[in-house]
User: Fold this.
Amino acid sequence: MAKFDLPAREKFGSKLGVVAAAAGSAVGLGNIWRFPYVAGENGGAAFLLIYLAFVLAIGFPVMLAELTIGRRAQLNALGSFKKLAPGKPWFLVGLMGIGAAFVILAFYSTIAGWTLEYLVQAIGHGFSNKSTEELKSSFEAFQAAPLRPVIWQLVFMFLTGFIVFSGVKKGIEKSTKILMPVLLALIIIMSIRSLTLPGAMGGLKFLFKPDFSKITWEVVLSALGQAAFSLSIGMGTLITYGSYIQKDNNLPVTALQVSAADTIIAVLAGIMIFPAVFAFGIDPAEGFGLVFIVLPNIFEQMAGGYFFSVLFFILLGIAALTSTVSVLEVVVAYFSEELNMSRKKATILGSVGISIVGVFATLSFGPLKDVVLFKKTIFGIFDYMSANILLPLGAIFIVLFVGWYLGKKNVQDELTNQGELKARLINVFMVIVKFIAPVAIAAVFLYGLGLF
Ligand code: PFF
Assistant:
């Protein structure tokens, strides 16, 4: 724990602000870029179904468990465990989360950088009169280039650092409250356009008509990993944000609103992408390039496409930014509270450290593409390792901690705001965090990795 008490810890100002900030963290590239591509690679509808089950049965309880830990302890991801379990090894869970934050931001900032390149291209009419093939090859040329993607990544890390540096509260809380509804409106408009393309039905079938023969343990693990990644759980982001939530906030309601918002946006992203994928004859298992090839294609064909393309990439960048800020905040809160650094120094150190690792992820699409392990590039390893390994592991320990160590009395006290609220379903929650969630996650994890 910090040697000295911090000057009044920052707090979110309003309930709406809490939801906007936490949803800002949850809704990001994970919904709009990662969800469609992972669903595409894993068979579509069957994957979606398993994903939804995980969000409900595991994602929501883990999110609530994290918020509970953070608000109870009022500290960063590592300090929270140290404070609530002094002298016990539980702090290692926090440490793993901070490691996960490093890995996630390293590869996330690669894609976040791409959104800036695409914004600039959209502004400069870069998609006009290009065929699907041309869009695909220009995307491939861009991502393999040695310099441009790195520069955009560093620009994005700079923006992230800048916001964290100035204090999250005013910047994030205020901006997310305006931007999240705009993002929602845009995705709805885009989905409608995509649905009205000739051949759209194929995409809807792919997304909503499950073919259960497609399900393997690997698919199930990917769905779990995607749920954890998309909800920002398993690494202490929501412990950190939870520590900024006021004592009168209804945490179960907040967790429910955030999970629902995140899930709705992911499904809408699927409705936006897959009909267009099928309409333009693209392979849904195309991989992480999916949105960067398909969306420009839609923009090219839609009335007012220029306007929407610019707006869309601005919003995609912002959705990414409100997520990257939350990941960096995990590291910065840790550096400043546990290592007694000023916020300024912590931010610079965190951003520079992550950027150095991140450059390797970016270059693994070009100059470093032959550096492979388990058939995955550096980027692929970071992506797979964080979502499918670190986050599920983190999630297991977080629920075990809340269920077995913190215990019902503390949990009830925190979730009812010291008896102010009714303790409805508390027993159900305890059974989930003690038994169901850890066993389910462990089973999926072991089978998915082929260890069982
Ligand atoms: N949830 C974010 C997204 O879906 O884009 C990514 C993310 C943010 C993952 C924060 C993990 C995290 F802790």
Remarks:
- The domain at 21-448 is CATH 1.10.4160 (Hydantoin permease).
- Residues 199 and 402 are 49 Å apart (CA to CA).
- The first helix runs from residue 15 to 26.
